[in-house]
TrEMBL record:
It catalyses: a ribonucleoside 5'-phosphate + H2O = a ribonucleoside + phosphate. It is an enzyme of class 3 (hydrolase). This is 5'-nucleotidase SurE. The gene is surE. Nucleotidase that shows phosphatase activity on nucleoside 5'-monophosphates. It is found in: Cytoplasm. Keywords: Cytoplasm, Hydrolase, Metal-binding, Nucleotide-binding. It comes from Halobacterium bonnevillei.
């Protein structure tokens, strides 16, 4: 772009998380940053939407008593300036795999922007279970920040968003033996959720995280999860609207209804 882009930054870990501070700082070298983020942690809220939210000024921008999707709508429609691109993150923990896309508040913020026709990037940091909770300083997020800033600076002029509505970026954790390579991926279809009843409670567990921690995953080359486990920065170009597949079996049922 010939002028510095207007960048709306949000997240789902909350406005006081180190990841969003690192992202806002890193993107300030690329464009004009406005932060509109949840006041508290709103992880795994998907595209949950409120009808009314409180807003307060914060040292980074605006704190919203709502979800990431609330923040995107509020930022675009009420708080301004209207952005050239929306960036969500950096999330503490990866957002990998097809099944995570609708669950993640970080990714959902990017999807919300895409429905407005605004290019968007979701940015996340992969952490194994042994490292989860360790990054407490903005400097720990340098890998995803660098990758995201690079994409914000170059992707729009390169025509990337003529083919993708949003990009899902995942970078290796700080202690990983990373390659530094950025690879274009597709979301993995791997899925391994379990549930165990313990009296009056049920424990739900995503066993894919265990496999990622061991480095023993079934995902083939070209998938987002395989790329990050192998130490690469994964970038998945995605579209927001759900696709439809017309076929004779359903057409026949509709005709005989």
């Amino acid at each position: 772009m010939t002028t510095s882009p207007e960048i709306l930054v949000t997240n789902d870990d909350g406005i006081d998380s180190p990841g969003i501070r690192a992202l806002a700082d890193g993107l300030s070298d690329v464009g004009n940053v406005t932060v509109v983020a949840p006041r508290n942690n709103k992880s795994a809220t998907g595209r949950a939407m409120s009808s009314e939210v409180a807003v307060d000024e914060h040292e980074l921008g605006y704190a919203i008593d709502g979800t990431p999707s609330d923040c995107v709508v509020a930022g675009l429609e009420a708080l301004g300036p209207y952005p050239d691109i929306v960036v969500a993150g950096v999330n503490e923990g990866a957002n990998l795999g097809m099944y995570v896309l609708g669950r993640s508040g970080t990714v959902s913020a990017a999807v919300e922007a895409a429905f407005f026709g605004v290019p968007a990037i979701a940015s996340s940091l992969f952490l194994t279970s042994e490292h989860f909770g360790e990054p407490t300083d903005p400097s720990d997020y340098q890998r995803p920040v660098d990758a995201t800033a690079y994409l914000v600076e170059h992707a729009m002029d390169a025509g990337v968003f003529e083919h993708a509505d949003y990009l899902n970026v995942n970078a290796p954790h700080p202690g990983a033996d990373a390659t530094g390579e950025m690879v274009v991926t597709r979301p993995s279809h791997g899925y391994d959720m379990t549930a165990v009843r313990n009296g009056e409670t049920i424990t739900l567990h995503d066993r894919m995280w265990d496999q990622m921690g061991d480095g023993d995953i079934p995902d083939p080359q070209g998938t987002d999860r395989r790329a990050v486990v192998d130490g690469h920065v994964s970038v998945s170009p995605l579209t927001a609207p759900h696709t439809t597949e017309h076929h004779e079996a359903l057409d026949g049922l509709a005709e005989t209804y």
